[in-house]
Amino acid sequence: MFPSDTTPCPDTRDALLEAALACFAKYGYDATSIRLVASMAGKNSSLISYYFKGKEGLYREVFRYLLTHFSAKTSAEDAQGPAQVPAGPMAGRARLRAHIRKILREVDAHFDASDPLREPASRLWLSELQSPRHEVRDLLQARMEPFVREARACLLAVRPDLTHEEVDFWGITLHGSCIHHALMGEITGLAWTSADPSLSLDTMADRLADFTYHGLSQR
After folding, report:
1. Higher pLDDT, 78 or 30
2. What is the pTM of this model?
3. Residue 39 belongs to some domain of the structure
């Protein structure tokens, strides 16, 4: 049953999640209390126990909420199916390029300046990427798994002789390069003053794919 002193309206759960996102992003997990979240949302704190079973459940659902929100922004292109990859010697490069473009598009969606959730979501994502909490480790792992699987397939398509350790090393390097280029444009521009900050995702994907492909092809 609902708490007797309040009746939730249809948007109560989302209001609590958005308030929790703002609090966790600004104050961190330890300094955020259930009472603080409820106060920011203008809701009764007992509703957090009702919907989320406590603070840990609330934190976990904030990440589910973010994953759903940002996945929806890229689902239209994904619904068209995977890019057509030509057969022959360039198949590996084409697949690599398609994968890189998808990573760049995902990062762009998460850090879109026009998105009202961008600032708090960015803070929370970066905090978790540095030191994932146990409450959300499985969610992050599940989100990353298809990207890791495809990166391994792309690398082996180019270099089938790579060992498992080498594949993982180059996969981490590849994803790190993509995220750095997509996310760190302003700060890198301070040092790399002639870099073009307005490169399209397609151009960036082409260049990163060429760099990776030719680097892997050197034996």
Report:
1. 30
2. 0.79
3. yes
